Amino acid sequence: MALLDLFIAASIPVLKVLLITALGSFLALDRISILGADSRKHLNNIVFFVFNPALVSSNLAKTVTYQSMVQLWFMPFNILITFIAGSLLGWMLIQITRTPQHLRGLVLGCCAAGNLGNMLLIIIPAICKESGSPFGAPDVCHSFGMAYASLSMAIGAIFLWSYVYNILRISSSKSSKEVEINDSSVDKTPSLNASYTEPLLHSSDEAMQVSKDQLPLVVSPSSRFEHKPQVVLYENPQDSLFSKIMHHAEALAKKLNLKRLLAPSTAGAMVGFAIGLVPFFRNSIIGERAPLRVIQDTALLLGDGAIPSLTLIMGGNLLKGLQGSETPKSIILGIIAVRYIGLPVIGIGVVKLALKFGVVHNNPLYQFVLLLQFALPPAMNIGTMTQLFGAGESECSVIMLWSYALASVALTFWSTFFLWLVA
Prior knowledge:
Keywords: Auxin signaling pathway, Endoplasmic reticulum, Membrane, Transmembrane, Transmembrane helix, Transport. The chain is 72% helix and 0% strand.
């Protein structure tokens, strides 16, 4: 296959992303005011809760079978390797550039988490439609490619909200504590009100607090001289142990943010696997003669709106980066080097070793998806996390702006090389 055909097949999807992204940025301008901050927020909620789950569940349900699970089992480990390798390279970048404390979590997150959902959902279908694609019939390529991309998005969401979310949470809490310490060190004059208004014991630790399982007991001064039966109070150890377990479980759930971990796209993936793997559900919903095929058709129709909506939102969010910030150039260049040089090289080694040991079967499309997972720009949801914690918002916008601006060159190069490698 000619190298020019591979280059055209790889560049067309990236150009489509750039055009829709530019349109999103244009619609987000103040003088246009069609895709403003409130509009992006509402559209993002629709995509997050409706379009993405429909897209993931419909594509997985249509293509996942027991035979295809043999090929798909390695993908979660491959995504885990991208997070681990990106974190190690990000830690090295922090040590080299001496990144400030409030930006360390952002740097680690941008190096570890790639855009495993949106970019694959756009690039793979576009490549399948090109005549120079090495993946066979366009309809078959599109069907399996969307299943791989949907599974990648669901697994990536789990790692993103369980790993990167907590990194940014810990980093933002440390930076806020440092700010409080610095603020308190400015005024070293002791304050009488601040020193003596705090109670010695918290309300939850007071010795006189009476629990619901205890009875009130009043002991008179003369009771020590009277031989009366004494009432001995004790707590039920089973209730106490159960309450402690529930308390720790609730605290752990809040720290891990299970609501984000079990995102709608992850729930959609579970539904898609259930429909695809259970014969009763598959025969009832999937197929031209299935009695409930209208459910699958409706999910596919809703899922078609996810890709353009996500790309428009991405373009509107990148507009913030044009305003600029005080982000060190060394950090921006380092993140770009990690995402577009270090990780793709590591990915080639990982996939080649997996092929050598027979872990990955000789499927060109599946290999291409595994390789492409190492060469993607940072995940856009990192910007949502910085807004949530109120730390590094402007710096994240600048990092995203330059990362996605250079993605047009990096993704075209690596997509062409990966196509040549698996062809």
